[in-house]
Amino acid sequence: MAMEYRRPRRDSARKMKDTQTLLTDLRQFVAERDWSQFHDPKNLAMLLASEVGELVAEYRWVAGDAADAHARAGAARERIADEIGDVGIALLLLCDRTGIDLGEAVAAKLAKNRARYPVETARGRAERPADS
Amino acid sequence: MAMEYRRPRRDSARKMKDTQTLLTDLRQFVAERDWSQFHDPKNLAMLLASEVGELVAEYRWVAGDAADAHARAGAARERIADEIGDVGIALLLLCDRTGIDLGEAVAAKLAKNRARYPVETARGRAERPADS
Amino acid sequence: MAMEYRRPRRDSARKMKDTQTLLTDLRQFVAERDWSQFHDPKNLAMLLASEVGELVAEYRWVAGDAADAHARAGAARERIADEIGDVGIALLLLCDRTGIDLGEAVAAKLAKNRARYPVETARGRAERPADS
Amino acid sequence: MAMEYRRPRRDSARKMKDTQTLLTDLRQFVAERDWSQFHDPKNLAMLLASEVGELVAEYRWVAGDAADAHARAGAARERIADEIGDVGIALLLLCDRTGIDLGEAVAAKLAKNRARYPVETARGRAERPADS
Predict the structure, then answer these.
(1) Which chain A residue has its CA at the smallest distance from C57's CA?
(2) What tens digit of pLDDT does each residue of D20-61 get?
(3) Which of 1.10.287.1080, 3.40.630.30, 1.10.1740.10, 3.50.50.60 would CATH assign to domain B19-122?
(4) What ipTM was estimated for this complex?
(5) Chain D residues contacting B, CB < 8 Å?
(6) Whole-structure pTM value
(7) Less packed terminus of chain C by CB within 10 Å, N or C?
(8) Partners for A (CB, 8 Å, 3+ pairs)?
């Protein structure tokens, strides 16, 4: 399905804006609009779900073996980057509100997954739905 | 609803693991298990949707005005951090596969949102569903 | 939170269109457009997820204790009915494609839930996330 | 992708339990457990999103051209029917709470879709994401 896959080059050589700077920008954006009153974690989880729904919509009619190419084409790529931006914003807002560090949460979960899916048994086998 | 809200202190003073390091770790995790064959962007969008579903499940019976407190309690906090870790992993895998830089996508979308929701008209008003 | 809740009167006294008639109409709609080629169960699950995302968007900024009233107001009610229609269409298409009878699936799951959540222990307690 | 697709025979020749009977059963199930206090439309939209997330999980690693067969196999079929049951329950609870008739909402949206996607222009073309 993905034999031909090669990791695409970065869109840009610019160094990624670090997460702390993004959080500072997001906080300012929210504060200027007085939106923190709407941003309890329950509502932000819903925001995240609705944004992910839009990202899923982008791929729903794309065949699996065309999915890599789809994200490289002009208009589709821009829409996908837009949706990923929305999902990232929602996720960072939720992390900021709950005081959960995204990088730490990812690293901690990755460590759990290493233990849960040992290389010798997991190799080449998709995780079973019941496992997650 | 969130009058009493105060940003919680970070779980840890440790510096966040930077995104590049996380990506390197994730790539190794996937490569060791030969899972890249399953990770086309369509499948990863579905992974993201299912992980977000689990995060939403955590809040579905929690009242809005109890949602901030919910994420501070012991077992619930751990589950929420776990689900955020899963969502973050899915999102980073999707970014890596499509070559879309998460930080850039967030920054670009935030810039668009600044234009779309001017402070003077958006202040104190939740975005309307039709707008997003 | 919902003390004041009273079941609203039906929008209409018309008898609900029965599911078999709806399925016949949906099949014709799809056949006329030659869309069955896109409607494998994986794609339909994604359609369902994206439509549910739009429904969730409708409620994300609505406070829990205003959620009942929200669905009764003019424009919001129409949008919600629209989104419910979309979700219903996606779900029926998936059922039709997989040959799973929606009514039977609901009845069977309800029977399981009766056993899983005995009245004496479940009464007045929201299901715990870990249980579902 | 779905050339070989043939509509599967119904699991059962039993007549589908009609929606009104299911609603009566669901209301009794909820009333016995005093759960109506948790079932405002916002929470039910979240329930729906989390159940759909579990259904999506079932298909995330299944290739598109294997998706029809996946729903016919023993254990997978049972899990999928289970998840469809959960989604149906959440959707019916939401319809009942808001007083929106599922059958009417589906029929009304189908009528809108007929106008939105005329046969002559839509034939054989997947809906574009931006359109939905």
Answers:
(1) A50
(2) 899 999 999 999 999 999 999 999 999 999 999 999 999 999
(3) 1.10.287.1080
(4) 0.88
(5) 38, 43, 46-47, 49-54, 56-57, 59-61
(6) 0.90
(7) C
(8) B, C, D
